[in-house]
Design a protein that fits this description.
alpha+beta
Amino acid sequence: MALDNGFNLTDTLTYTPNRACHEVKFVNRMGCPIYIRFTKYDVTVLGDYGCWVFKGNIVNCYTFFRGDHINPGYWEEKLEAAPKFHYDRTIDAEALRKELLEEYPDTIKEEDLEYLESDRDSLESWYDTLYELNSEKGWDLEMEYLYGTMQSCIVEDQVYLQVCELIQYAANYLKTQGVNDDC
């Protein structure tokens, strides 16, 4: 079965002898494999996309990653390890400007955001700048809420999204193969 991102699911579904790990192997058009290994408490992705490990306060990885919706921001909170080339959490500056002006029409003005001209600036840079402006201008904005607004404007990296798609597809595939939630 082919996925939208060009990977094919092979017929190989490998179980370790103690059934503590389930592995799904994907092969891209060039024949390069990507392995997704599930245990109850973590998911590891190995192959051309580097090594990714998702865990951290997940009750059950088999059920956490199943479904038909990916929440990249929330899933990232579960990311314990990623390749060095993992995305740098950039912001769609125009979308953030628009969001801030709509959310805080009585507080933030266009001229307050003029000098932030980059199309894609880092989340941390925006947060630091807005934190400073909040203090300097006496805006009294709830920074935790503001951070949530900023996260809605993150430009997601395509490799990260493809890894998420592969994990979700593998989790759903394992369910069709009879891998229960209590493995």
